[in-house]
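User: Just a sanity check before I run the rest of the batch. Below are the structure tokens for the first item. I only need the designed sequence back.
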């Protein structure tokens, strides 16, 4: 996820690690160590290179990173990868920021895959709620019922959040492809 985010920024302009962290931080937490390690790995894979060094007003040296041609290819591969279902919402949000760099069919594919992932997750949540509510034996303690109620409420909240995500994606699809794109 970090690589995709970094590359999506570098598709627009070369920049330094501090600026990268400031852009990424509102979306996802990234520590200095994680950013540094990720940048080193990306340099080793040659998806980015050191572009130039700037000198600040207090004479510190700042290294700028730039995406390579191979990095651009890798960026598009990451954009179209839908295999990571554990972070599919955050990844989709990151990807939508670079939608204009994709072809129409690619954008539509990603939107449809996202909606499908939301539906699958919602189906799973409904099964979990049913399992919590369908205990064969009565709970021995009131504490179990309290836990069950809280867990059910939490699962229902996630279900509702997924409804909002789906609605947003459908609106995105409508804005990109028109009302009758399906």
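Assistant: Here's the designed sequence for the first item:
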């Amino acid at each position: 996820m970090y690589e995709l985010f970094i590359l999506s920024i570098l598709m627009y302009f070369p920049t330094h690690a501090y600026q990268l962290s400031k852009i990424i931080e509102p979306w996802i937490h990234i520590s200095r160590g994680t950013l540094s390690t990720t940048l080193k790995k990306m340099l080793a894979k040659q998806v980015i290179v050191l572009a130039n060094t700037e000198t600040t007003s207090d004479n510190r040296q700042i290294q700028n990173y730039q995406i390579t041609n191979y990095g651009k290819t890798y960026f598009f591969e990451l954009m179209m990868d839908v295999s990571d279902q554990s972070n599919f919402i955050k990844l989709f949000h990151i990807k939508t920021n670079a939608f204009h760099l994709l072809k129409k069919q690619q954008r539509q594919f990603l939107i449809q895959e996202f909606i499908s992932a939301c539906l699958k997750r919602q189906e799973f949540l409904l099964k979990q709620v049913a399992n919590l509510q369908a205990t064969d034996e009565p709970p021995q303690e009131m504490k179990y019922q309290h836990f069950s109620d809280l867990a059910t409420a939490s699962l229902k909240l996630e279900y509702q959040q997924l409804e909002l995500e789906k609605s947003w994606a459908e609106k995105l699809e409508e804005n990109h492809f028109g009302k009758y794109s399906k």
